[in-house]
Amino acid sequence: MSKGELAYAIRITTIGKIIYKSTKGLETKQALAPIDLLLDNGESLGIVGMSGSGKSTLLRLIALLEEPISGAILVSGHSVSGMTLSARRRAYEQIQMVFQHPGSVISPRMTIGEFMSEPYRCMKGLSVSESLAQVNRVLEEVDLPASYTKKFAHEVSGGELQRIVLGRVVSVAPKLVLFDEPTSALDPQTEQGVLTYIKRLQREHGFASIFVSHNIEVVEDMATRIVVMKDGCVVDTIDDGAQLRDSAVAYTQELLRASLLT
């Protein structure tokens, strides 16, 4: 490790070629070549690439939503695959993920209050009343009234639902939050509002983040550093997100041209 790397709080490393069993079938796929990513506390790392580049698969492997059958993912030196149940539970507190469709992570039978109080009851052992007090505090952080605890997911808008998910994510004080296309299902005005909440919560809570999006302008806005992926490999690294368009790498310029046509 070089002297410059000592300042980083999180290091994500893939050991060997990552091969995993696809959730869409029985075939195995080579998803990732060896990758080494460094993040400081509070830093946002953006990942861009065309569909099939491996960016979303990397997030799912880090978040323990996919299990590699060959190779390993290390987060700060610890393997996230093959963990015991107790170790996996501790890892979930450190690593949280925000998805494209927030409604997919909330049971339609649960109220917003029940959904948001789960981490306090299951991870922190708080009582129902203690959990509800914490939920009300978190709702206030994302500018939603306490009355929303009695609502169901289908009764709130997409932007409000994503803010609710963000509130639950930060409630466990994670070190790393993974964002997989978190605003692509929202209209432009709502998208900008949610991005503003993400920035504010990251600034106030100090977590590091990895931000994946097909929208290059969004990644430029959110990320302090950007990596470009192709076929499971990192092919370009931009240390200042604002300088993405100045990259001399041909594939990066190809991505930028494609983004202008969409």
Short overview:
It is built from eight helices and eleven strands.
List the helices and strands and how they pair.
Layout: E1 10-21, E2 28-32, E3 36-39, E4 44-48, H1 55-62, E5 68-75, E6 78-79, H2 85-94, E7 95-98, H3 112-122, H4 128-141, H5 158-171, E8 176-180, H6 188-205, E9 208-212, H7 216-222, E10 225-230, E11 233-238, H8 250-261
Parallel strand pairs: 4-9, 4-10, 7-8, 8-9
Antiparallel strand pairs: 1-2, 1-3, 1-5, 5-6, 10-11
Helix pairs in contact: 3-4, 3-5, 4-5, 5-6
| Overall CATH class | Alpha Beta
Largest sheet: 6 strands, mixed
CATH fold call: Rossmann fold
Strand segment tally: 11
Topology as H/E string?
Answer: EEEEHEEHEHHHEHEHEEH
Can you name the CATH architecture? Answer: 3-Layer(aba) Sandwich
Secondary structure class reads: alpha/beta
Poorly predicted runs are 1-7
Q: What would you report as the Rg, rounded to the nearest angstrom?
A: 19 Å
Strand neighbour order, sheet with most strands: 7-8-9-4-10-11
Distance between the termini: 41 Å
The chain-level mean pLDDT equals 84
The CATH superfamily name is: P-loop containing nucleotide triphosphate hydrolases
Q: Indicate the overall shape.
A: globular
